[in-house]
Amino acid sequence: MRRRISTAVLGLFVCTLTVAHAADAADTTRTVFVTVVDDKGQAVPGLVPEDFAIKEAGKDRVITSVEPARAKIRLALMVEETLVPMIAVRSGLADFVKRMYQDAEISLIVVGQRNVTAVDFTSDPNALMAGINALTLSQQRVQTMVPEGVYEMAKNFEKAKPERPVMVLVALETQQVSAEEPQNVLNQLGRSRAMMSVVSMEGGGSVAGGVGSQMDMAGRAQVMGDGSKQSGGRRVEVAALTGMPKALQQVADDLSSQYLITYTLPDGVKPSDRLTVTLKKKGPTLRAPTKISDK
Fold first, then answer.
1. Sheet holding 235-238, edge to edge
2. Are 154 and 194 in contact (CB under 8 A)?
3. 0.70 exceeded by the pTM?
4. pLDDT tens for each residue of 112-152
5. Contact of 36 with 260, CB cutoff 8 Å
6. How far lies 85's CA from each of 89, 107, 124, 132, 134, in Å?
7. Strand runs (DSSP E) across 249-288, as ranges?
8. Is the dihedral of CA 43, 128, 197, 186 positive or negative?
9. Degrees (nearest 5) of the Cα angle 290, 160, 190?
10. Which of 63, 84, 245, 285 has the fewest CB atoms within 10 Å, i.e. is most exposed?
């Protein structure tokens, strides 16, 4: 009887150690989504771990797997309220939804003085088209809060923790009064792990002000420019509204050309928010985040 009890206790001890070790191993594994396209903006198939290199906090990390991104995208399609009535913008949004709805849950969000959800996250193309058609056609000049809108969406993503969060922002390059420091917005974007792409056009018609006004404009530009770069997205600047549909299709090309890279940290090393991903293969273009959550 005594031997049986000892054996049972030993078995329990071994089992406990095995589970603990598995948990430790899971804690050292990290993932990142990257985009790889050819010179025509199309996907580059067949890439393997040997085609990439990753540094976290300046230190080489071991890549354990590279595979095409298959997780459903959680996509916040954000359009500045000033642009909502524009036919070219609405057409671009509709074509983008038609392209992406099978691979994404999409929410249509109007960015004004605050974010207004026109359609909540769904993969139903009819609901999304109805939402686009229901957007106002009234051309009113309103004050829009783009940095705050990005910050709010990033906070939502950080809380919800979707596997593959994405923001696509359609906005003007113009002045605004912003209460949110741009670096705070960028830090929050990093914590959310969301990839942000921006389609923008020169706004014009802004009232030039003093130093404070110029800083506000620089802050919006910093969020739109640095935000897309640090998150692994892209910024497409168009010269006219007619360029919006094509620009949104370029963003869709990127989202359809992504890989999921899994890599590991050495035992005892804490994750960092500083990341460098490089592609060893010559020719294709790589877009990858440079700042991610350290959680």
1. 115-122, 104-111, 73-80, 165-173, 195-202, 235-238
2. yes
3. yes
4. 989 999 999 999 999 999 999 999 998 777 778 999 999 99
5. no
6. 8, 18, 23, 10, 10
7. 258-264, 275-279, 285-287
8. negative
9. 15
10. 285
